Amino acid sequence: GAGVSQSPRYKVAKRGQDVALRCDPISGHVSLFWYQQALGQGPEFLTYFQNEAQLDKSGLPSDRFFAERPEGSVSTLKIQRTQQEDSAVYLCASSLTEGPYEQYFGPGTRLTVT
Amino acid sequence: EDQVTQSPEALRLQEGESSSLNCSYTVSGLRGLFWYRQDPGKGPEFLFTLYSAGEEKEKERLKATLTKKESFLHITAPKPEDSATYLCAVARGGYQKVTFGTGTKLQVIP
User: Fold this and answer.
1) A42 vs B43: CB contact, 8 Å cut-off?
2) In CATH, what number is assigned to the domain containing residue B80?
3) A56 touching B (Cβ < 8 Å)
4) What CATH number is given for A5-100 in this structure?
5) Which residues of B touch A58 (CB under 8 A)?
6) d(Cα B95, Cα A52) in Å, to the nearest integer?
7) Residue A33 and residue B96: Cβ atoms within 8 Å?
8) pLDDT tens, position by position, A38-77
């Protein structure tokens, strides 16, 4: 069956540009997570949605980062005025039930800010 | 602040040579401890959830165990296809945030 998909897979942005990263979770999954993963590190939590409600955004590093999931399915992570330190892989994960259990991850979007 | 420390950072095994990976954690009120496998260029793949000390789970050549301070991922008679980075993560009760360790990179040589 279809897993979690993310687009684009690779994105190069010039410093100061805005970017939008898309996540298509598994159909029917209630929970959706965004993570940032630097090279050689584990994923770092950014934000959590339960259906369309953003219940935890404690991991967003600055107010340049914004996420939405307006209809409780597809989600978009937007980064405004990108900086070099934003370069990383951005992972999306979904799970069937409420909470951090058995997450299915997408392949990630590799963002490079030049 | 929740903390997860994994050791060793890297491990090289001969095919069939069993070993264990360690995950030490500090969390106030454990909601769950998770193990994931990550192949290069891919997102993590879920392996296990453990909820309380004394719990054990198995899947093929992998067995995960949990105490109040650490978890072990035992790999029995590994094969080259078990080569990957193994990630440990914890979640605190009442919260959705998951804190990951930096992983153990396992290489199994034929």
Assistant:
1) no
2) 2.60.40.10
3) yes
4) 2.60.40.10
5) 97
6) 17
7) yes
8) 999 999 999 999 999 999 999 999 999 999 999 999 999 9
